[in-house]
Amino acid sequence: MRYGLSSRQSNHSASGGHSHARRVGRDVTGASLIAQSVSRQMRSTIFCDETGLENRMKTRPFLTAAWRDLLLLNWRVDPALLQPHVPADVKLDPWRGEHFVSVVGFRFLDLAVKGMPAVGHRDFPEINLRFYVQREVRGEIRRGVVFLRELTPYRMVEWVARAVYNEPYKTLPMRSEIGETQTQYELQQAGKWQGMAATPVGDWREPAAESMEAFFIEHYWGHNRHADGGTMEYKVTHPMWRTRTAELTRFDMDLKALYGQDWAEVLGGAPDSIVLAEGSAVKVFSGARI
């Protein structure tokens, strides 16, 4: 079975679809409602102590979705290159003494904000560049990620992510193709399609607790830096994902244009690890400044 998903994909009802004008009308209404929810969320993002943060995590999630068909390309990296991007009050999270940066492609499906379906923006591919951090809270190690760049085909998604979570999103034409023999994510720059693809090797399995595969997928917190130097923290929940190894069949993205010269040099070599993850339904909770 193959799945295709692009920024041009539209939804149709069981009764046979709607005209273009009707779909646009519905999309605008959905976008307006999402914008109102985002505005309320921005007003509620405040400094709080740990008890206040934990109470926010017990409320209804800000965002629900499914993250499916993840392709993770992972490189060892000098921590000196990461350190300038580490938010205040968190530190780098190594695996067996080594630090990693990952380019991750996945399908973002069934997006809803505060329980409201994001009509016209529900299903799309995404590619992000991230690294791994941790924060200790009363003896608990919160293992999280910091995003250096996130790519989406929808400007509304970029706006929400920047407004609520201060995430470094950028909008580009994108598409994905998922099949039994290949997982592929593409983006378009300067009129040219480019992307990343891999062929699976071996069977799906639950990764061992201390394995490299588990390290890449078992980070349940997001951290980012605000313009004033403060740090936001938010929680993500999902079940353990099954993984399988893969062989890289394509990686021709213009890395310098996307990420800058330093990261182009790091990502220009062969990845140290290539992992496919099944994914699942996820919940993303409101963030708080720590």
Task: Give your account of this protein's structure.
It is a single chain. The protein has 290 residues and is α+β, with helices and mostly antiparallel strands. The chain has a single domain, classed as Acetoacetate decarboxylase-like, CATH 2.40.400.10. The chain is 23% helix and 44% strand. The chain has seven helices and 16 strands. It has a seven-stranded mixed barrel. Strand 12 (221-225) and strand 13 (231-237) form a beta hairpin. Helix 1 (20-44) packs parallel to helix 4 (155-165).
What count of helical segments does DSSP give?
7
Q: Strand-residue fraction?
A: 35-45%
Shape: globular
Q: How do the helices and strands follow one another from N- to C-terminus? A: EHHEHEEEEEHEEEEHEEEHHEE
User: How many independent structural domains?
Assistant: 1
* The CATH H-level homologous superfamily: Acetoacetate decarboxylase-like
Level of helix content? 10-25%
CATH class reads: Mainly Beta
- Taking the alpha carbons of the first and last residues, their distance comes to 45 Å
Question: Which ranges are low-confidence, i.e. pLDDT below 50, for 5 or more consecutive residues?
Answer: 7-48
